[in-house]
Amino acid sequence: MLISLLQQIEPRSKVELPFWLASELHLRQAASVTVPPCFNKKTREEIGADGAHVDLTRCSYFYQLGCKIVQS
Fold it and tell me: Which of 23, 32, 33, 65 measures 20 to 30 Å from 12, CA to CA?
């Protein structure tokens, strides 16, 4: 089922996937992965400057996803 789904996606398409699926596809070299915008350079600089006043509503699972990224 997953293989048939992957065959329907055009090469170089950008799609949002759950972390568990994105990491598995990346391990199998079937996809490249980019970090979500909530972990981009701008957000990291905001946290470094004044972490107490950063709006993390841009990523509702900021801490949980951050821990998973670090562990993988």
Answer: 65
pLDDT digits (tens, 9 = 90+) for 31-47: 888 888 777 888 788 87
pTM value surpassing 0.85: no
Question: What is the maximum alpha-carbon separation in the chain?
Answer: 46
Looking at the structure of the chain, the number of domains it has is 1
Select the more confidently predicted residue: 68 or 1.
Answer: 68
Range(s) of the domain holding residue 49:
35-72
For residues 46 and 33, what is the distance between their CA atoms, to the nearest angstrom? 23
Which phi-psi region, left, alpha or beta, contains residue 8 (left: φ > 0; alpha: ψ -120 to 50)? alpha
Which tokens in the block code for residue 55?
Answer: 């709006």
Residue whose token pair is 């946290």 = 47
